[in-house]
Automatic annotation (TrEMBL):
Enzyme Commission number(s) from the entry: 2.7.11.22
Organism: Smittium megazygosporum
Top EC class, one word: transferase
Compositionally skewed regions (Polar residues) per UniProt: 27-38
SUPFAM superfamilies registered for this protein in UniProt: Protein kinase-like (PK-like)
Reaction equations catalysed: L-threonyl-[protein] + ATP = O-phospho-L-threonyl-[protein] + ADP + H(+); L-seryl-[protein] + ATP = O-phospho-L-seryl-[protein] + ADP + H(+)
Protein name according to UniProt: cyclin-dependent kinase
């Protein structure tokens, strides 16, 4: 896929040509046009040649796959374990949720399909094909089956991963995130439940329903992205011109969760989330976050000053290099927050204990071979599929594929009511 930062030409014929070529795995010489963020491809598939072409050429799920059991359900789909009727191979099927309040094919699903089809990396989940069920409105993504998700695994483990294992997992995650960012893609929902791990110790980043390409200069996008516990502070304060740094904050939260077996910032609302962040990391000032006062919601709060971070006190067994890496991932200032490439070269990964060979990881029994993965009390991803710019209600067509509580006088700030 060509990831050049260019605007697409506006021709309906080019839209359809690009889509058809992408489905065939080829890349056209010309680029398709812009679509409204709110557009969902017509009033019905039969009246919408673009969506109809996408779906009508797909194979039937009933002819080629046998459904075995439900694994889990998320904001944008339900995942099942299934068997290929011809080869006997086990695969994962994601049944896409079609929002009845909209007409046509959901943009979140198109983005996920497009991103996965054009982003091949050892640590990204592999999409094999799209299949349809009994009706053309029943659409499934066929993906590699991976035995575990890290959220379930961490919760059920009697003790945390070893430091050598954490380093291996983090290197794999950072490698995948670096690949996405170099190709101008922001995942926008990195969390432990979206990280799958097979019995060979290999991580696969999954669930690209909120993924977006970003441009330079940055254009406004919705800030209602990323599951709350992993959401960067600039998003919580209303920033709409953001880029890869929001993913790196999420990576920092994942790093801490691997160490501690518990979410780092388990907030119950945006206010609660900010409270927990400031309680641990201190309150930002002109030095730590020079542009904080410019954020849309920054003036809604008054803060109790806490001058220092408590990361060292919380993670006593983490080396100084480990604390340094975690601190740089959880930097308040998105402009100075560490990048994935920089993190991969951090000395933490070059000190003892060294990263463990993935093949030497323990083998855990799969929690999805015959039962639904247990649901834990963690928030869902934001259900938001229209990144509407205040100044322009159009997006690059390539993007498509691919309440406050009053009880806030706690932990660092209170809401100005």
């Amino acid at each position: 896929m060509d990831f050049k930062k260019s605007r697409w030409e506006s021709s309906p014929k080019l839209q359809k040509s690009k889509l058809k070529n992408d489905l065939k795995g080829s890349t056209p010489k010309t680029s398709p046009s812009l679509l409204s963020e709110n557009q969902t491809f017509g009033t019905s598939y039969s009246n919408d040649p673009l969506s109809y072409h996408l779906i009508s050429k797909c194979r039937s799920i009933n002819e080629h796959y046998e459904m075995l059991n439900k694994i889990e359900e998320g904001t944008y789909g339900v995942v099942y374990r299934a068997k290929n009727r011809n080869s006997g191979e086990i695969v994962a099927l994601k049944h896409l949720k079609i929002d009845k309040s909209y007409s046509g094919f959901p943009i979140t699903s198109l983005r996920e399909i497009y991103t996965l089809k054009n982003s091949k990396h050892p640590h990204l989940i592999n999409i094999r094909e799209i299949v349809v069920g009994n009706s053309i409105n029943s659409v499934y993504i066929v993906m590699d089956y991976v035995e575990h998700d890290l959220k379930v695994l961490i919760t059920n483990m009697p003790s945390a991963f070893l430091q050598s294992e954490i380093k291996t997992l983090m290197l794999q995650l950072l490698s995948a995130v670096e690949f996405l960012h170099k190709n101008h893609i922001i995942h926008r929902d990195l969390k432990t439940s979206n990280l799958l791990m097979n019995n060979s110790g290999q991580i696969k980043v999954a669930d690209f329903g909120l993924a977006r390409k970003y441009s330079s200069p940055l254009l406004p996008m919705t800030n209602i992205v990323v599951t709350l516990w992993y959401r960067a502070p600039e998003l919580l304060f209303g920033e709409t011109k953001y880029s890869t740094s929001v993913d790196m904050w999420s990576v920092g939260c994942i790093f801490a969760e691997l160490i501690d077996k518990e979410p780092l910032f388990p907030g119950t609302s945006e206010i609660s989330q900010i409270s927990k962040i400031f309680s641990l990391l201190g309150t930002p000032d002109k030095n730590t976050w020079p542009e904080f006062d410019l954020l849309p919601s920054s003036q809604l709060f008054s803060f109790k000053k806490q001058s220092h971070s408590k990361l060292r006190e919380k993670f006593l067994n983490l080396t100084q290099n480990g604390i340094d890496l975690l601190s740089k991932m959880l930097d308040f200032n998105p402009k100075t927050r560490i990048s994935a490439s920089e993190a991969l070269n951090h000395p933490y990964f070059r000190e003892s204990p060294y990263p463990k060979d993935p093949s030497l990881f323990p083998t855990w029994p799969s929690k999805s071979s015959g039962e639904i993965r247990k649901a834990y009390n963690s928030p869902s991803a934001p259900k938001h599929d229209d990144d509407v710019s205040p100044t322009s209600k159009q997006i690059v067509f390539s993007d498509i594929f691919e309440n406050a509580s009053k009880n806030t006088d706690k932990a660092g700030f209170k809401l100005r009511l």
